[in-house]
Fold:
Amino acid sequence: MKNIIESLYTGRCDIYEYQKDTDPVSKITKNIETEVYTNKKCRVSYKTISSSEQTDTTDNISQVIKLFIDPNLNVKPGSKIIVTQNGRSTSYISSGQPAIYTNHQEIILKLDVKA
Structure:
């Protein structure tokens, strides 16, 4: 069953975590971006829904972005995920805990507006 689900994966992704690193000289601790997984098979699915938030000048639309990936990967909340699918690379930040199933896991993503 897992092979059938993975046959639907049309994308590849790189996953980064933010890890603490202390400079030995200055003793200042910073969060640095560290790549933990490279070129993993995945699939991004989009669902657009209307937001209940509307102002006089804009009508806000929110988009639900879901990543499907191998359940054996330990993707921590807050990880940065760069997905290449359909010839385009897009940077996301993960939000919340992954929903882990027997044959896949699902992670709700947010578009990385800094990228």
Observations:
- Strands lie at 11-22, 29-54, 59-69, 80-85, 88-94, 99-100, 105-111.
